[in-house]
Amino acid sequence: MLFLQQQNGSGVNLLYSTPSCYTFQQNHLNQIWNGKDDDFFPYASSAHTFWTGYFTSRPALKGYVRQSNNYLQVCKQLDTIGNFETGWMTSSQVEVLKEAMGVAQHHDAVSGTEKQHVANDYAERLANGYKSCENVTNMALKRLLPRFQQEPPNLQFCTLTNISKCEITEKYDKVVLEVYNPLGVDSDTWVRLPVNGTVFDVFSFTGDAIPYQVIPVTSETKKIPERKGTYAQNELVFQLTGISPLGLQTVWIQKGKGDNSSYTPFKAFPSADFTMQNKLVSLTFDHITKQVKEMENLQISLKIPLNQRLMHYFGFSGNNSKDEFRASGAYCFRPNATEPKTMIVQSSYIVQGELVQEVHQVFPWASQVFRLYKDANNVEVEWTVGPIDISDKSGKEVISRYDTSLQNGGVFYTDANGREIQERKRNYRKTWNLNQTEPVAGNYYPVNSRIFIRDPAPDAQFTVLTDRSQGGSSVNDGQIELMVHRRLLHDDSFGVGEPLNETGADGKGLVVRGKHYLVLDTIKNSARQHRLIGLWLYRQPVIMLTNVSMDREQWYTQFNTQVSGLSTLLPENVHILTLEMIPPNPLTPISLRQAIVRLEHFYENGEDQEMSKPAIVDLQMFAFFNITGAVEMTLGANMMLKDLNRLQWRVMPSGDEPTIPYERQIYRELKLDSKGKLPQITLNPMEIKTFIIDFNG
Questions:
Q1: Under a CB-based contact definition with an 8 Å cutoff, are residues 688 and 422 in contact?
Q2: CA dist 669 → 16, 485, 628, 642, 679 (Å)
Q3: Which pLDDT tens digit goes with each residue over 498-516?
Q4: CA distances for 415 relative to 97, 146, 147, 201, angstroms
Q5: Which of 64, 204, 591, 603 has the fewest CB atoms within 10 Å, i.e. the most exposed one?
Q6: What are phi and psi of 691, to 5 degrees?
Q7: Residue 689 near residue 588 (C-beta atoms within 8 A)
Q8: Comparing C-alpha atoms, which of 160, 131, 84, 240 is closest to residue 561?
């Protein structure tokens, strides 16, 4: 701290300090502080300037960042599980994607409030990180897969399967797929691969045949500019189940012979209302509008009217000279009217198969697919928007709106960074009286992973989960809306210096594709549903592929077809948030390695009768190495928790402080007992514990 006392009689003392020093001094003023336990969102800098547009801005980059984190966690896990003698080298390769992801967290990066060429640079850095992590992944597979001496060929990530593009599956007749599950529990996943042909042989890791379905690639997908140079005409669809925690599973795929009974071509929409259903869920579509009209949870006979529409607001065009002339831009969301324009379904068709049923909707410059997989408890809605039409010289902000009969009384719920659920009230702020000047933008909140509404009368909760961060709200009772794409022609004068006008690969406008997941259940049961789906979306199984020349029997003889990274199963309410090798010194022996392990109890207190209970975890759960000691650290793993001395504050009670029924336990140094065991640890609801573990292979 630098203190310069006034020397010239001015009465001014100059104090140079730091945030920590300032906080320390404020803490020692011995005063009582007002407490604030509600949210700061949504921000507004003036009556017509709500900073809620960036919740959605640059949706393709937001989706890429979310997907990149999935790959990064896989890369860090496999780097640790591999426990390479050259760990210092592999850790440096992991660092490429870590640094790219770190830079992407900048407040003008994933937020979408950067210039276009800067956004391109962020995406390029992430792509370079993918390639670097692909090398680490292959090194791990060469350790985990061989039964004998033969190494497997290098496998590749196919990162463009969302637009039905993957050179390996399109080009080769025999393909090996390895799927890695980054979760600490068994996982299931549906696989969709771009292929040519309609007859295949698909075999599981045990050699059993896997049922599959072949569906044509849509004309809407074929129009996406980034798909140039690819020729896949169909998609191969099948399900993988029971993928071991932190484990691998092999699938053998080859072109087959015989009948093509698994090929399910597109069919015209029926002349009557159409219902697609499995054992758990049904969704009914109106034969006139081709839109959804009803959803039912078949397990409990819970049925609600449901209408979903793609709509768009017109972005306000202004010169920003005054507040009333504020334009809608990268930061600011300002529609020029409170009611959006409905996009009309131009055509619709269906797919009916044993594994998946689909309803396709085509709009002037957008399309949607409603999918119901076999035995799924949720409906997948894949939206494709763009290029957004600006021929009328108007910017547009596209939303997906879900209308139900639920009476939610202005109350809706969104997540906070995928963890705690925040209650929101329309046109309301807890600590001050709100004069609402923007009834739409002023009620938008960030939706990182889910948004839902409830109605106690029918005991119903309708939840929408997202695959990336989006802005969302319940502007009217019974509604949920999520903004999925934006294209604007004016800057809002908050520093970007150019309009949010993403033009895409062909310069005509960016096409963005993403997914929503719909869940209908009772209020009591919904937490478990959205927690499990949300966790799966955050840590989806990752697919790697290679073409092969050997036959299936040879591969299954030479290589392991199933690998599990855990010897002890985790409790269902605990998630391995981090498993990351601490980069070793090149001279550090392989028997003296360290890693960061973060464990998360991902349920809130009281939201589920069973899953909200404390969980007991055995740190010695990993199959590929032995933990010889551990110490609990702060969240950032930069300080032993026992050395942390938090400042104590005197706070004015608000009267609604939450009751915390559990006492936090601090684990100092955990050492092996006489039987070679470490003490078990306890995780309370929403608690994250961070450890540095010592291990050897």
A1: no
A2: 38, 49, 11, 9, 10
A3: 999 999 999 999 999 999 9
A4: 26, 43, 45, 42
A5: 591
A6: -130, 145
A7: no
A8: 240
Residue whose C-alpha is closest to residue 127's, from 72, 198, 77: 72
- pLDDT at position 1 is 47
Between the CA of residue 694 and those of 41, 593, 597, what are the distances in Å?
42, 6, 11
In order of 54, 69, 360, 485, the CA distances from 62 in angstroms are 10, 11, 25, 11
Could you tell me the sign of the dihedral formed by the alpha carbons of 418, 424, 430, 436, in that order?
positive
What is the reported pLDDT for 17?
Answer: 80
Q: Token digits for 671? A: 């050492």
354 phi/psi in degrees, rounded to 5: -70, -30
pLDDT band at 259 (very low <50, low <70, confident <90, very high): confident
* Residue whose pair of structure tokens reads 């803490």 in the numeric block: 27
Q: Please give the domain boundaries of the chain with CATH numbers for all domains.
A: 39-146+264-528 (2.70.98.30), 574-696 (2.60.40.1360)
First CA to last CA distance, the chain: 47
> Tokens in use for 19?
């945030």
201, pLDDT greater than 70:
yes
Q: 253, exposed or middle or buried, with CB in 10 Å at 0-12, 13-18, 19+? A: buried
β pairing state of 460-466 and 512-521: antiparallel
- % of the chain at pLDDT higher than 90: 80
Q: Are 119 and 106 in contact (CB under 8 A)?
A: no
Choose among 344, 337, 330: nearest CA to 313: 337
DSSP one-letter code for 566: B
261, pLDDT greater than 90? no
What's residue 650's pLDDT?
86
**What is the 3-class SS of 303-368, one letter each residue?**
EEEEEEEEEEEEECCCCCCCHHHCCCCCCCCCECCCCCEECCCCEEEEEECCCEEEEEEEECCEEE
- Rounded to whole angstroms, how far apart are CA atoms 316 and 649? 45
Helix, strand, coil shares of the chain as percentages rounded to 5? 20, 35, 45
Q: How far apart are CA 484 and CA 368, in angstroms?
A: 12
DSSP 585: P
How far apart are the C-alpha atoms of 211 and 191, rounded to whole Å? 12
Evaluated on CA atoms 530, 536, 539, 540, the torsion sign reads negative
